[in-house]
Amino acid sequence: MSRVFRFASFVFLFASVPGTVFAYDMINFLGNIQADFSPKLVAVASVGERVYAIDEKTGQLHIFDKEGKLLHSKAGAGFLSAPQGLAVGPDGNVFVADTKNARIQVFDADGNHLRTIAGKGSAPGKLSRPRSVAVGDDRRVYVSDTGNHRIQVFTSEGIFLYGFGGKGQEQGFFRHPSRIEVDSADSIYVLDAGNDRLQKFNADTTFAKQFALHGQDFALDRYGFLYMLDRKRGKIKEISPKGLVLGNIGTKGRGRGQFRDPRGIAVGPNDELLIADTKNKRIPRIAVRNKLKIAQTQQGLTRKLLVTGPVRSTILGASYVTAIGDQLVVYDGKLGQYVVLNSEGKEERRFGSNKGKEESVTKRAGGIAATKKFGLFVSDKKGDQIQSFSLKGEHRFNFAIKDGFFGNKEGSVDSPAGLAINEDGSVYIADSGDHRVEAYGPDGVFLFGFGPEVGPYKLEEPIGVAWDPSGFIYVLDRKLKKVLKCEPSGGYIKSWGEAGGGIGQFEDPVAIAYDGRSYVYVLDQGLKRVSVFDGDGKWVTNFFAGGEDDRGLEKPTSLTVHGKTLTIADPGKGRVVSFRLHPLLAPPVAISSKAVEGRVVLSWTPVKDSLASQYRIYRSSRPLGPFVEIGSAKKPPFKESDVDARKDYYYRIAVEADTGDIGPLSRSVKVFVPDAFNKAPIEISTVSVKNIFPSNYKGYFKKEIGKAVIVNNLDVPFRNVKFSFHLKTYMDAATEISIALLKPKERKEIAFTANLNNKVLHVTEDTPIQAEFTVTYYSKGERQTTSLAAPIKVYSRNAITWEDPQRIANYVTQGDPQIKNLKAAILHHDMPTGPSEAGYLNENLVTAMRVWSSLGALGIRFLSSPNNPFEMVSEDPAFPVDYTQLPRETLHRRSGECDDLVTLIASTLEAASVKTALIDFPGHIAIMFDTGSNDVIEIGLPADRLIDYDGTYWIPLEATMIGKPFEDASRKALYAYNAESKEGRTTIIDLVKAWKIYEPVTLPDSDKPLPTIEKPLVAKALAKSTAHYLKRRYEFRRDELKKAMGEETQSSEYINRLGILESQRGRTKAAREGFESALKIEANDPAAYNNLGSLFFLDGDYKKALEYYEKAADRDSEDARILMNLMRTALKMGNRTQAKEYSKRALEIDKTLAVSIDALLGL
Predict the structure, then answer these.
(1) Which pLDDT value is given to residue 340?
(2) In angstroms, what is the C-alpha Rg of the chain?
(3) In this structure, what CATH number is given to the domain that contains residue 639?
(4) N or C: at which end does the chain have fewer Cβ atoms within 10 angstroms?
């Protein structure tokens, strides 16, 4: 069986066809794809270099290559049942109208099943015997819902958007619609078989035109020409965009150019026709040329809005929802509580009540709104008042309280419903009972109101209100079923909406929101959908319908739009659900191209859209693709040098919104690159060099600083081509790279580094310099040189970018002589070290407290930059470069931002041999230091007060609190770390690892004297902090001891260990009483005698100490530690002979004590 495409050059030249106005110029029968194995082909489609066909009888999807070879046969009878429609989307996915199963099946380009859209039924979003499917440039899916006599539109993910039509004979209605097509302007063409017509609709679904029907199927080309397939006569009729019949193609039969019972027709990517020639079991391909095809259908110029998700869903029967950044605040009507949900939809806290007589009680909410700055405002519908709460749940005040039984007084509300807060804190309230809208200040002071009369309307039940950045107010009236747009003062501008279930109509609108940029969203509880309009009331799209799946709505009551997210409260389903919004911007039009000096230059008219962020450029060497992204541009033109001479290229452009969503691609533009003239045999085609950050000057020798493309313009090879790169002043020698062989016409990209000297550290302000590039080669025995200069910027030595937070490691300069001197001054023996009990604390903790207290005593303080604070720079791409101080600069200036303080503290601790790491939060940075221990008992702090990292426990510090108590700074940093870690928003910058990429700056010594550290200030701060940690240590170890001993808390062992803790806490009396009580429990306890001896030793009563140590030794003669205590005591009493005797006995028990004994005896 042959399954290959059979080509022929069977060409017909036509004159006028009787009964038509025009004739096409040429028909070329290109050949057939044989499908002898397929009993009933009914639909065909083609994209790129593939052809797809479906068989109604077997339910198979056949995939052929451009030569007609069968690649795959997928799906089948158990998967597709009597499929009749087929379409391919711009992303290559294949959509099949699974007619009998009442659904759309989606496959990838290889026929692998991806998802199912819709299911059987008559409700919106459900299907009945769909016979055709089409996919727009924006990937929206259009379905002929044949059994329900309507058209329905979905996202490619399967979310229902909107539908139109219904059974009838009037314009815009259908009887058994079948084939559907959509053009690049988003116009919709529907074969209305039952009414014997083809209807065309505009993108907003309004009726545009009607065509006479000349067949049972049709296809649409990119010029707007229709090709109607008459299967009974075996003919194809060509119809102009105006509806004129231009000619016939084909006849009934088995020969070339003949068809038998053809069921489907499609237009291929090269405008060729493909026919499902059912009974001939083949797919003929026919090229039709017509001189009337001059201009392609213009691509749609309007922005599209799509939706995906859900991206977040919380099981909670909330009635109202509002957003503050990524957080949501919802009202749980059953409990009368406000619930704060985090970015993952998890509950963080609750507050409020609907019971009681306190002013904070909400009897029944009618709407909520919140901002970070002004807090939460609530319409207490039953209580006839507005309430103000902080975001922590603290009740502030009530206002607009109803005065009297009937109310209707300005400055009071009656059954208030939805409300909104603008940027200035003005609170707009839909005063439902008083049939008006009122505005109040954030302090509850009445500003103004309007209604019931608004323009030609009288408000009946205003239920929602929204505002836009221009100050316009949008009022939703539930009974009028309208949105009224008003001036900031309340003056009427326009309105839209009416009762009904069609496009732009409402059944039971209950909530309204504005997205802060472009669109007004109306939630319709009756229709279970969201309708979207622009600010002038033009319908944009609908989202959703009723349904049991996670995208269906049941009884939605409230919505909010925050950033790229739409959130709906649907108590009917007992959930709060969020979806991601996707604005898709139309591609640029009027793209022009040219090839200049071996470069392609693309120009276009900039897209005038406030959401436009940049343009994405795609290229292919073939007309049909695939197209690969090659670059981007903030604005036209776009220039590309990576092209070959005497070659065709095809380019397409898309617009990226500032949300990151990329719109449809433009039509392709063809560019031919001719041979270049007046070029050197070898040249530097392009160079790209990174701007230089002096703080990382060592790193540029290890990591590439730029790339260059070297081009051989001749048809002969060159050997030993040398490329060099040099920066005057800042490089002692040029970087040189040798290319052993540069082949004919070869373009070679090379990456290069830079060995910068430390003169670059003298740059204290951003400085532009010229980079010098040179290529040296030999031609005909003579040395030739081609040079190029390009400007680059050397930033200030304090410049940094935060795309890789590890860069800050450049500024942790523990080897800086100034920092070493600072460390020496802080840890000098004359400086305060804290109380003697501090010796029981973790050594690194004590060192950190000494450093912190000393820096605080120096007067170093946090000072946020008024221009570029870290909090803005590190997150905002509009501020790509920040400036951070070197630790020595922060030391002498005695102030800095958070990153400046972090590097100073880290440098000083590292110089003191305390290992540090940095904690990167969104918009902030903190420090933590290593205790060097993995034992919480030794550290004296519970694990929840520490950070477990890299095998040991670390203590964090909030550097901006320098000058405040050490323990408070640790507590705040730990809280932030835990909170942000739950959201996955923390990154630990391990300095040891970071230094491998970003080495610390090497700085020369400085003759600038260190500032004087005020010892009394250090002593005071250190005493407070050590007291805090000694107390924490005592309490923690005491509690852990109780846990460890269990029921044995009355044993002598427990009392001894507790007594030691009391002693270390400085409570000598309690310790002595404890040790004595241990002896009452166990009279011969050597530990108790030894511990009492130690207390006397610490008090300086060496005679008593010796007495108790001897009693301990008598009761345990094999404990070398007791003998060591006796030796120390004898030395204190001046009895060296006795001390030697004790040491001799200790050595007999434990030889490892030799070194310690020699040290004590001075040997």
Answers:
(1) 95
(2) 40
(3) 2.60.40.10
(4) N
Q: Which residues contact 1035 (CB under 8 A, 6 or more apart)?
A: none
Residues 196, 215: Cα–Cα separation, whole Å: 9
CA–CA separation, 162 and 559 (whole Å): 19
The domain of 747 spans 682-794
Tokens of 809: 């490691």
In a domain, 5, yes or no: no
1090 near 1109, Cβ under 8 Å?
yes
- Whether cis (ω within 30° of 0) applies to the bond prior to 452 is yes
pLDDT tens across 810-867, in order?
Answer: 999 999 999 999 999 999 999 999 888 888 899 999 999 999 999 999 999 887 554 3
At 726, phi and psi to the nearest 5? -145, 145
Q: Which pair of tokens denotes residue 306?
A: 């799509």
Q: How many residues does the chain have?
A: 1163
Q: What is the CATH number of the domain that holds 1056?
A: 1.25.40.10
Integer Cα distance of 296 and 223 in angstroms:
4
Q: What are the φ and ψ backbone dihedral angles of 829, each rounded to 5 degrees?
A: -65, -20
Residue 327 is part of a domain; what is its CATH number? 2.120.10.30
Q: How far apart are CA 342 and CA 324, in angstroms?
A: 10
Asked whether the beta carbons of 294 and 305 are under 8 A apart, the reply is no
pLDDT at 15: 35
**1041 within a domain of the structure (yes/no):** no
Short-list 177, 173, 156, CA closest to 164: 173
Under a CB-based contact definition with an 8 Å cutoff, are residues 695 and 799 in contact? yes
Within-domain flag for 1045: no
Do 769 and 703 belong to one domain? Answer: yes
Q: Looking at the structure, tell me whether residues 968 and 1114 fall in a common domain.
A: no
SS3 972: helix
DSSP string, 1101-1156: -HHHHHHHHHHHHHH-TT-HHHHHHHHHHHHHTT-HHHHHHHHHHHHHH-GGGHHH
In this structure, how many other beta carbons lie within 10 angstroms of the beta carbon of residue 779? 13
Cα 917 to Cα 991: distance, rounded to the nearest angstrom: 6
- When pLDDT is averaged across residues 9-20 and rounded to a whole number, the result is 37
Are residues 244 and 317 both part of a single domain? no
- Give yes or no: residues 409 and 530 share one domain: yes
User: How many structural domains does the chain have?
Assistant: 6
User: Do 373 and 508 sit in the same domain of this protein?
Assistant: yes
The answer to the question of residue 3 being in a domain is: no
Amino acid letter at 98?
D
Question: Based on the number of CB atoms within 10 Å of its own CB, is 1040 exposed (0-12), middle (13-18) or buried (19 or more)?
Answer: middle
- With contact defined as beta carbons under 8 Å apart, do 595 and 564 qualify? no
Higher pLDDT, 1047 or 470: 470
Strand 416-421 versus strand 395-399 pairing type: unpaired
* Cβ–Cβ < 8 Å for 573, 317: no
Q: Supply angle C-alpha 965, 967, 969, rounded to 5.
A: 75
Contacts of 689 (CB under 8 A, 6+ apart): 705, 706, 725, 771, 790, 792
Quick one: 545 and 612 in the same domain?
Answer: no
907 and 994 co-located in one domain: yes
pLDDT in tens, 1053-1108: 777 788 888 887 778 888 888 888 888 888 888 888 888 988 888 888 999 889 98
Domain endpoint, select from 289, 318, 348: 289
Q: What is the rounded distance in angstroms from the CA atom of residue 220 to the CA atom of residue 209?
A: 15
Q: Same domain for 350 and 401?
A: yes
In order, the DSSP letters of 1054-1117 are HHHHHHHHHHHTT-HHHHHHHHHHHHHHSTT-HHHHHHHHHHHHHHT-HHHHHHHHHHHHHH-T
666: Cα within 13 Å, side-chain hemisphere: 27
Mean pLDDT across the chain, nearest whole number?
90
Of 945, 959, 949, the residue nearest 991 (C-alpha): 949
